[in-house]
Amino acid sequence: MAVRHRLIHASPSTVWAVLADGRRYAQWVVGTSRSRPARGQWPHLDSAIRYEVRIGPFQLVNETVVRRHEEGVCLELEAHAGALGTARIFIELRPWGEQCLVIVDEHPLQGAGGRLHNVGFEPLIHLRHRAMLARLARLCENEEQGERSAVADAVRRAEGAGHA
Predict the structure, then answer these.
(1) Edge to edge, what strands does the sheet with 99-110 contain?
(2) For the chain, which end, N or C, has fewer CB atoms within 10 Å of the first or last residue's CB respectively?
(3) How does DSSP classify residue 20?
(4) What is the pLDDT of residues 55-75, one digit of tens each?
């Protein structure tokens, strides 16, 4: 089982906002090039998004389904990868002061991925998770920094209002 964590310098609500936006899935999930809603309202139970994976001239369209979610706390997904089968991906958010500790736990469920999974594949999954969590951190930290800048600008404008 591949379990990886990362402390993201953003609030849990900011991290959840990124995870809860299915259109942004391809921005933080390694290997995907585009995502769009397939059914339901992401990230509610049984909702799904379709995503594209490009390998050279080939393009695969796969689907990820929400199997469980607790708003702001966790998201459990089943990623379908065609002939490779399916994988369970559990993402947990833990408040860590004003920051967010994100824990990702992934393992294959069905298909070739499940049959071929062994200790030799674990380092590959860890590398993928390290890159994925780095992407997620960059998105969330940039988003939170943008929000802080917007608030600071609004405060400066309000403080300057009425002064000659």
Answers:
(1) 2-8, 99-110, 86-96, 74-80, 58-70, 48-55, 32-39
(2) C
(3) T
(4) 788 888 899 999 999 999 999
